[in-house]
Design brief:
Elements: H1 7-19, E1 28-31, H2 35-51, E2 56-59, H3 62-70, E3 74-75, H4 78-81, E4 84-89, E5 93-94, E6 100-101, H5 108-116, E7 118-126, E8 139-143, H6 148-160, E9 168-171, E10 173-174, E11 177-178, E12 186-191, H7 198-205, E13 211-214, E14 216-217, E15 223-227, E16 232-237, E17 242-247, H8 254-258
Parallel strand pairs: 1-2, 1-4, 2-3, 4-7, 7-15
Antiparallel strand pairs: 5-6, 6-14, 8-12, 8-13, 9-12, 10-11, 15-16, 16-17
The chain binds ribulose-5-phosphate (5RP).
Ribulose-5-phosphate binds next to helix 2 and helix 5.
Length: 262
């Protein structure tokens, strides 16, 4: 079954599998959103089944909540958990300082709240997301529907003074309607091509009243696990200053793949 996976899915799988090694008995966990995070939820459920780990998970989207529920994980709200030991989540881009672009799956708001309420954030990604400079992936920004066109104009005006290469801003659609986030907000995507100063951009975007949150995660991620299609993984820990190379073998039981639906 594992041989049926595309190289990119194998890369996501090995990153997720390696990251789940960070989980210890009794932990409260933030559960990320997206296809890589979905592998992590499956690998976590497998460890819970096989080792009897007692963990509580706080999902970052309704999609992740449903998957975690279906796999028998204990799901609690952030308000019940209050503070988390570890969050494991995917990303759209990761730079050398472990700053991130997130929100490709429109869950950036809950993801940022949950990651910020965690002692540690581990990001899992395939090698295509490993970049020297952020910005090729359009930066998602969650905005309030009320007056969203005015908010979009304010963002465009702001971008004229920023160190970026592109300045197009588009409303994310779901068919012929604006896509709605779990909080019933809209997402605008900023096609910046290159972000010269992600820290500054993250701060100023959030000064615009209609902006709820932006997809730049600055100084939030502690560890990144980069997966490759041949089973290699690289684990970079920004606090310890270490980089570990490892190789995983595709030994997961077939049922973990049968459950794959993202
Ligand atoms: C969702 C996210 C995802 O983590 C990000 O889009 C990566 O997704 P995938 O693992 O499917 O490539 O930020 O809001």
């Amino acid at each position: 079954m594992t041989s049926d996976l595309s190289p990119i899915e194998r890369a996501k799988f090995v990153a997720a599998k390696r990251a789940v090694d960070f989980v210890q008995d009794g932990m409260k966990l933030g559960l990320g959103t997206g296809s890589t995070a979905a592998w992590m939820v499956r690998c976590l459920a497998e460890r819970v089944r096989n080792e009897g780990l007692r963990v509580q998970g706080v999902p970052t989207s309704t999609r992740t909540a449903e998957l975690a529920h279906d796999l028998g994980l204990t799901v609690v709200s952030l308000d019940e958990a209050k503070w988390l030991d570890l969050t494991i989540d995917g990303a759209d881009e990761v730079d050398r300082d472990l700053n991130l672009i997130k929100g490709g799956g429109a869950a950036l708001l809950q993801e940022k709240i949950v990651a910020t309420a965690s002692d540690r954030m581990v990001v899992i990604a395939d090698a295509a997301k490993d970049v020297t400079q952020l910005g090729a992936f359009p930066l998602p920004v969650e905005v309030i529907p009320f007056g969203w066109q005015t908010t979009k104009s304010l963002i465009e005006e702001l971008l004229t003074g920023m160190d970026v290469l592109g300045r197009d801003v588009t409303l994310r659609m779901n068919g012929d309607r604006p896509l709605l986030t779990d909080e019933a907000n809209y997402i605008v995507d900023l096609h910046l091509k290159r972000i010269g100063n992600p820290r500054q951009l993250a701060l100023v975007l959030n000064q615009i009243p209609g902006v709820v949150e932006n997809g730049l995660f600055i100084d939030i991620c502690d560890v990144v696990v980069i997966g490759h299609g041949d089973g290699r993984v690289e684990v970079r820990d920004i606090n310890a200053g270490t980089v570990e190379q490892d190789r995983l073998f595709f030994t997961a039981p077939d049922n973990i793949f049968l459950e794959a639906d993202e």
